Structures are given as structure tokens and as C-alpha cells.
Model the fold of this input.
Amino acid sequence: MKILGIETSCDETAAAVVKNGTKILSNLVASSIELHQKTGGIIPEVAAREQLKFIIPVIEKALGKRKIDALAITVGPGLIGSLLVGVETAKTLAYLWQKTIIPVNHLQAHLYANWLEGKKPTFPALGLVVSGGHTDLVLLKDHGKIRWLGGTRDDAAGECFDKTARVLGLPYPGGPAIAQLAGKGDPHAYDLPRPMIDQANFDFSFSGLKTAVIHLVRKEKNIKQADLAASIQAAIIEVLVEKTVKAAQKYQAKSVLLAGGVAANQELRRQVEAKLTNLFVPSPQLCTDNATYIAANAFFDFKPLTWKKIRANPSLSIEEVIKS
Ligand code: KG4
Ligand code: ZN
Done:
């Protein structure tokens, strides 16, 4: 079965054709990131307008001359304006082409990047979804059987990278910029907090870390940028690794899946790999937003819906696909 995946939840306009949930036949991503770099963050209205420019050309290119069996569309969570562009386009195409359409949750879908390369995960699987807007630990008992174990109470891990990078005068998105600088710095140079690390739950909090960095930069005149970048990265990663390993042990996970933009971080990958043998991490280009995993998710958790019932939902939780 060939599924055309469409993803427009934030600032990427993406379309991909995936066969049987595992084989990528095409993968197109257009990004408005350069515009957002100028403003140091995403302006939702600008992102939505850019989605409108890219959506048809990206779908056309991803399709080529291929015949597809179904469409998969990200219905949430995300920015409402951006989501609406993809959702309404997908519904229109499903109606016109008389094709099956499957609504997909963007956060659950990130995990499906782990089904697109080489070895496949087995259940129960523990998932850590770390992106610009979310930090969630989930237990996947099977396809479509997902349980939320914990998540951030304030800023997401990616958001912490992005906001502290801004304090350091680094470009948006902050994750790759901090990671690059961190490679030249000492992770022990600055003593930063590891919020909630010792608490017996699977929740996270990153806003205190961000505030600590702001205070430090205000107080110290001679900040060594690379050292601070390395210290920020080390603090974020230590909490993520600690809680992921604990959850994997508690739930006796047969596979541990990293997913989301922050999973592209090499140091995070290295540290989790050192502690867990059953780890799955997608290639960096499949960690950040694209439509391959939207199509893969739809194949494995195949729950078609009439186009009339499909709606964009910006505040969907990781456990839902359609709000009742
Ligand atoms: O999943 P994603 O592409 O978009 C969302 O759904 O949010 O994640 C984007 C986030 C940004 O916060 C970005 O700074 C972060 O992923 N990111 C990284 C790296 N590459 C992207 N964070 C740390 N290290 C990286 N190498
Ligand atoms: Zn994402």
C-alpha cells in the first residue's frame, strides 16, 4: 500500500510517499525557517502564509507519476493556521480523488520515523518525543495503543535549546547552533540546574534552566560561549537520559524510541546509546519535521475517516487523534 503523507503543523511544508509504512519512495520538505531566523522565532501568521505558497508544489513533486492508495494528514497538534492549510488541502484531494484519508497525530507520528530504516521496533516500546513544542515520555503497547507517562510542565526541551541560544546571541533554531558550539566547550564549566531529575515521576521542567542561563549571562561579564553552550546541552541531556532510562526499566521496554527534532542531537544519541541496548534513533533528517513518518504512522495504525469528519486540532494531546 502506498500512502501520501502530508505535514504542515508548523514551519515545514512536507509531503512524502511511503510504501507499506517502511519504504520511502519520495520525501519533500519546504521550510520557511529562513524567514523565522530573521525574527528569532516563528510568527504563526507568516508560517501559515508560507504553507499556502508551498503546499501544492510540494505535493506535486512528492507524488510525481506515482499512484497512491490513501492519504495521511497531520491534524494536530501545531499552529492552527499552518495545520488548516494541510488539512483542508488533504480533504479536498481525498474528495476529488475518492481516496481513503487517515488523520494522524504529529507527536505520535514522530515515533514512526523509527520504522523507516533497518531494524523494526518491538512492543512494548518506550518513546521519548522531544521537539520544539513538546517533551513527552510515552508507552506504546502496540500500534494505536499509546499511554502518556509524563512530560514537560513548562518549556519543551527544544524550546529550552531555542531560548537559551537566543540569550547567547545564536541563530534560530537554537538546538543545532548550541550543539555545534558545545562541541568546542567544556560541559562542566558552568554549574546549571537539572530540574526534577531526582523526582520519582516522568515529568520535566526546563524553564528554570532557561532562567538560570539568563541570570548567569547578566551577572558574568566574560562568558565563554562554547563552555556555556556545552553546559546547557549537558544539563538538558542529563535529565532526558535519566528519565528515559528509568522509564525503560520500569516498563520493561523491549525497544526505546527517540523521536522529534531534539533527537537529532548527537550527544543525546551517544549518551542514551551508552545506557540502553534496545535503542532506536532515526537519521537526523528523519527526526525533524517531514511527512515520511506521517505516512508510516497511518499505515501501521490504519484508521481511515470520512473527509467530512477530519478537522485540524491545534491542542491535540499525544494520546489522541480525534477529539470526541
Ligand atoms: O520536531 P521538530 O523539527 O519540530 C517540532 O515539531 O517542534 O523540532 C524542532 C526542534 C527545535 O527546537 C530545534 O532547536 C531542535 O528541534 N533541534 C535540535 C537539534 N536539531 C533540531 N536540538 C538539539 N540538537 C540538535 N542537533
Ligand atoms: Zn515535530
Notes: The longest helix spans residues 225-250. The domain at 2-112+286-309 is CATH 3.30.420.40 (Nucleotidyltransferase; domain 5). Residues 95 and 307 are 7 Å apart (CA to CA).
